[in-house]
Design brief:
- 74% of the residues lie in helices and 0% in strands.
- The N and C termini lie far apart (48 Å).
- Helix 1 runs antiparallel to helix 2 and helix 3 packs antiparallel against helix 4.
- The radius of gyration is 19 Å and the shape is elongated.
- By secondary structure, the protein is mostly helical.
């Protein structure tokens, strides 16, 4: 909220518009949940907004619309300032090794990938990791067993 006020005072239209758009998504989530949404949900909303803008920039670049691609990338940079940092690959590996180690020996195979994810996400908040990276690392670690 403070970022919107600062952008409005500085008459920075791009920043204020971008932040207002994301805030409206947060308010809609609040309304749908009939309560304030947790910070992890807000981080998820921000990540989705960044992904949408990145994909839009790629499409605009393909269509030779560099002006619109530049605008989308600028909005992505603005939103990334508000995102919490993702866990590193080593932290993800450590948590996955712990989860895999807690499983019985017969359950340490690729067949039980769903169980590994379930236990992993009970320990680690989804908004702090890249789910694609978690999947890659889990498959790799299970293949090594």
């Amino acid at each position: 909220m403070e970022g919107v006020k600062t952008a409005m005072k500085a008459k920075d239209a791009v920043t204020s518009t971008t932040l207002r758009a994301v805030l409206s998504e947060v308010y809609a989530a609040d309304k749908a949940a009939n309560d304030k949404v947790p910070s992890s949900t807000i981080a998820t909303i921000l990540r989705r907004a960044v992904v949408r803008r990145t994909e839009a920039a790629a499409k605009f670049t393909e269509a030779s619309r560099q002006d619109l691609a530049k605008k989308e990338l600028q909005e992505t940079e603005i939103l990334e300032k508000f995102l919490p940092a993702l866990l590193s690959e080593t932290d993800i590996d450590a948590a996955l090794r712990e989860v895999i180690g807690s499983l019985p020996a017969e359950a340490q195979s690729k067949k039980n990938l769903g169980q590994v994810f379930k236990l992993f996400y009970q320990r680690i908040d989804r908004s702090t990791v890249d789910s694609y990276l978690v999947k890659q690392r889990a498959e790799l670690l299970l293949a090594q067993k």
